[in-house]
Amino acid sequence: MPSQILPITMRPSERPPPATAAMLIKAEIENDDPTTSLLISSQYEDDEKAIKPILTRASSFNSSPTGSATSTAASYYQHRRRRSSSENSLSSLSSSGSRRQSISKEVGHAAAETFLVTRLSLKLLRYLGVGYRWIMRFLALGCYSFLLMPGFIQVGYYYFFSKQVRRGIVYGDQPRNRLDLYLPKDSDGLKPVVAFVTGGAWIIGYKAWGSLLGQQLSERDIIVACIDYRNFPQGTIKDMVKDASQGISFVCNNISEYGGDPDRIYLMGQSAGAHIAACTLVEQAIKEAGEGESTTWSVSQIKAYFGLSGGYNLFELVDHFHSRGLYRKIFLSIMEGEESLQQYSPEVLVQDPNIRNAVSLLPPIILFHGTADYSIPADASKNFANTLQRVGGKAESILYEGKTHTDLFLQDPMRGGKDEMFEDLVAIIHADDQEALAKDAVAPPRRRLVPEFMLKLARSVSPF
């Protein structure tokens, strides 16, 4: 890489005697003053320009070839005082410039994230068509989002600017193989961890959708890792499960570096993410129960699985999704055809007598669902829990009367105060930690993000 060294020129009359020059250069080197350095500039591949110090040197100084050692020293220290003042000014400018660059970087990242979300929404519209039904749904979605905007703005600010959020950590070599970490402010001791797979109808899933949950769990000393994955048509369900597995593997093997407890890792998914996470868990158990299958993580590392408003039997959901606009042809394309529905239906798969050993390896499974959920009926969770119990698995379903698909994940958390589902979740995670339970008992109510009348209006117009 070609570099340019900035030249130093000195007129003959300015050149110090050899002895004095040696003394001053030695003094400069001992002080290691970066502001009196030669500069090298290089052209990087990403078109960014960098300026780096490579050699220290003495600045131009006033000395006479015939001057005494005393006058030379006095002149030198006078120069140092002048330069010290200049350094303070430079330091202030550098700090100010660094802050501006940091803010500029965050704003640029926010713009890039907004562009991605817009592109995902347009992709969904392209696949679902522009018929009357979906025009009305998108209008309803627009109204719903507008009514919850006060909450979205506050959560978005936290996501982009909080020091507790580590965004875009790479866990694999495929597009969208990134995850976000939400870290508690209290860094003492190892913290329990929730690996979370977000929902999005297998088409618009995105890691930032988990920012509200991440913020609130981190306030209870729980680390949250929101795992991104390829959506359709960038990938099919096989790719989504593979990505989720890689993300979980990264969490299991690396979370201790971020203060997480590798012995207290919980897997969680919401909506389509709950389906993907359940498929991943069952697939991993089958691998471990088989012979000679290499794995990078184990289901034994997962203390429990939490499914929030998920669907686990695709045979029973195909017609339901079709009636709500996720048409059969698109859905079967996502799931790699009708012949793959059994493979990606955890409820059906665990009933296969050939994988009973795999079922025994599964961790406790807790399924949360609202009884007024029209996107995925609550029976999806009830039936999966009952099936697991029947074949020897450890499972239960917890139903919330009158709650919709988005109540549990958006409206209730934005309402502030006490949230029943959230408190149930935290109580399970902290069940073996008496100190954490004591802190939970006196935790202040969560702050309201959206006025109540706007939450009620949003619920009434929600297309979900």
Give the tags.
disordered N terminus, 464 residues, Isoprenylcysteine alpha-carbonyl methylesterase ICME protein, 16 helices, 3-stranded antiparallel sheet, globular, 8-stranded mixed sheet, alpha/beta
Question: How large, in whole angstroms, is the Cα Rg?
Answer: 30 Å
Main sheet characteristics: 8 strands, mixed
Poorly predicted residue ranges: 1-74, 79-87
Give the ordered list of helices and strands: EHEEHHHEEEHEHEHEHHHHEHEHHHH
Tertiary shape: globular
Number of helices: 16
**How would you write the strand order of the largest sheet?**
4-5-7-6-8-9-10-11
What features would you describe in this structure?
This protein is an alpha/beta fold and 464 residues long. The protein is 48% helix and 15% strand. The chain has 16 helices and eleven strands. The protein has helices at residues 18-31, 69-128, 132-147, 149-161, 211-218, 237-254, 272-289, 314-323, 328-334, 346-349, 356-361, 379-390, 407-415, 420-429, 434-441, 452-461; strands at residues 3-5, 37-43, 49-56, 165-170, 178-182, 191-197, 223-227, 260-270, 302-308, 365-370, 395-400. The strands form two sheets. Strands 4-5-7-6-8-9-10-11 form an eight-stranded mixed beta sheet, with helices on both faces. Strand 6, helix 5 (211-218) and strand 7 (223-227) form a beta-alpha-beta unit. Helix 6 (237-254) packs across helix 7. The longest helix is centred in the N-terminal third of the chain and has 60 residues, at 69-128. The two termini are 55 Å apart.
